[in-house]
Recover the amino acids of this structure.
């Protein structure tokens, strides 16, 4: 069985600049590269991203795919492999089954890549990113980049909260 870290994209790996429609808008956090290089030694890395701009008609599926391809390729140039990228394209009112913190994509990764969710982590700047793995038997980590500070009061008191993706990686690797 493999262990995984499920990474949010916007506000966690790259700056959250709203609905991104093209690679030129992508700005990586400085800490992202080192953090993922360290994590991938022991964990498979996944990106799970909520792109409601598609469901709302603000973004095309292809816009999101081009941004994700750019993110993945930039990481790959640094030697970082993202095993898979999962996108929820729905808006709130769709009541879909794949919107975080629903564990839909966690189970998919378990089926497709033999991931043991109980030994896996989710990391992100929204309470749904924290709850994603935490509520499925793994561990959630909340980062204060992106929208992290804005939603901090919506988190359970005992939630593991860190400064950024760099600190998240250090804590994950210290626990394993
Ligand atoms: Mg986010
Ligand atoms: Zn969805």
């Amino acid at each position: 069985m493999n262990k995984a870290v499920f990474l949010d994209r916007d506000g966690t790996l790259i700056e959250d600049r709203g609905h991104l429609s093209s690679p030129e808008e992508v700005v990586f956090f400085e800490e992202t590269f080192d953090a993922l290089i360290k994590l991938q030694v022991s964990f498979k890395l996944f990106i799970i991203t909520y792109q409601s701009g598609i469901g709302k008609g603000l973004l095309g599926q292809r816009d999101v795919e081009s941004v994700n391809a750019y993110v993945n390729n930039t990481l790959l140039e640094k030697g970082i492999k993202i095993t898979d990228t999962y996108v929820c394209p729905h808006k709130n009112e769709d009541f879909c089954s794949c919107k975080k913190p629903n564990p839909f994509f966690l189970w998919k990764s378990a089926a497709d890549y033999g991931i043991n969710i109980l030994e896996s982590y989710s990391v992100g700047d929204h309470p749904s990113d924290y709850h994603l793995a935490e509520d499925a038997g793994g561990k959630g980590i909340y980062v204060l980049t992106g929208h992290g500070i804005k939603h901090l009061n919506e988190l359970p008191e005992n939630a593991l909260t860190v400064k950024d993706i760099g600190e998240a990686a250090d804590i994950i690797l210290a626990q394993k």
Remarks:
- The mean pLDDT is 97.
